[in-house]
Write a structure and sequence with these properties.
single chain, two-stranded antiparallel ribbon, 5 strands
Amino acid sequence: MTDLRALLAPIRERLAAATKLGEWEVRGKDVVIYDPNGYGAHRIVAWVDHAEYTEPIANAPTDLTRLLAAIEAVTGLHREGTRDFITALPCIREECDCENECPTEELPVCRHCWNQLEQIDPYFGEQHHVSEVMWPCPTATAVAAALGSDTTNQEGTQ
């Protein structure tokens, strides 16, 4: 799966470019950026025919900043990690004679989902299927899909 931070980077860069001269404000039917040096000069960002559209346009950078922070908070929690799993069917069924030395395989999991389920039931990994915590988890997949990513790819590829 594509790195979620990489999907957010171009959005953050466009936002920074659009707001580097200052905050956007409404002035009549114009959305303007006032000179950050205090000279009173301004640059028109948008002119609209209907005044009711200026407020949403002027608030777009602030709203986008907040949305990016929310998405980054979620993606900061839902990150790839690994856990060792017993994968041999006789060992899973406890029908082996490995004497507690069953072979394991390291598999990708969502760190946050794993930790949440482990807090609810410390033995869930031994007693239940763990598909709900495998990476990418449903939350990371939903965020990536909403950002336009192919969620079937491996981490770091596009």
